[in-house]
Design goal:
This protein is α/β, with parallel strands linked by helices and 176 residues long. 30% of the residues lie in helices and 15% in strands.
């Protein structure tokens, strides 16, 4: 998955065609979700194809320093390449929320460690129940949600949203 940032809605159909043409020509497979909030994709192909794809994707999106998470596999985990245009990539029932920049701030590991030592910091784990069961930060608040779309309801019910509590950090599931 790539960092989410706003895509110009008018450019999404053209980007879809560009991605599909590249995948067909290069023999790349995978799934790509496009929406106003950005792009989420997982692809497979040869090392050479993926290197070329990363370079081209940075050009197509006009973002020079995209961070990719690589892994290897002996065979394609996908049968085909698909691009889906979605109203929401991160589904929470709020299509009005769109990230404003590919360069939103993130904490370094040292900053994160320092922040969670502060007793006034509330860490919210937004992962689903299965993922939280595997492990979480000791002090993290678990809303016991089954799907991320349940997160807004859980926040509203918790009192954090109406000022009863203050939230300094949000630990979210991501594979950015």
């Amino acid at each position: 998955m790539l960092p989410l940032f706003a895509l110009n809605e008018a450019h999404i159909p053209r980007l879809r065609r560009t991605l599909e043409e590249f995948a067909e020509t290069a023999g790349m497979r995978g799934l790509c979700l496009l929406g106003r909030e950005g792009i989420n994709l997982t692809v497979s192909g040869s090392t050479e194809v993926l290197a070329r794809f990363k370079e081209r994707l940075c050009d197509w999106l006009q973002v020079p320093d995209l961070e990719f998470k690589d892994s290897t596999n002996d065979k394609h985990p996908f049968h085909v390449f698909k691009v889906k245009i979605k109203d929401e990539i991160v589904t929470i029932g709020r299509v009005d929320l769109v990230p404003d920049s590919p360069f939103n701030s993130h904490l370094t590991p040292a900053q994160w460690h320092e922040a969670i030592q502060d007793p006034n910091t509330i860490v919210i784990d937004t992962r689903n129940d299965y993922e939280v069961e595997i492990g979480k930060f000791k002090t993290a608040t678990d809303f016991k949600i089954k799907e991320f779309r349940d997160f807004p309801r859980a926040v509203a019910e918790s009192g954090i949203a109406n000022g009863q509590k203050s939230s300094d950090l949000l630990h979210r599931r991501h594979s950015l």
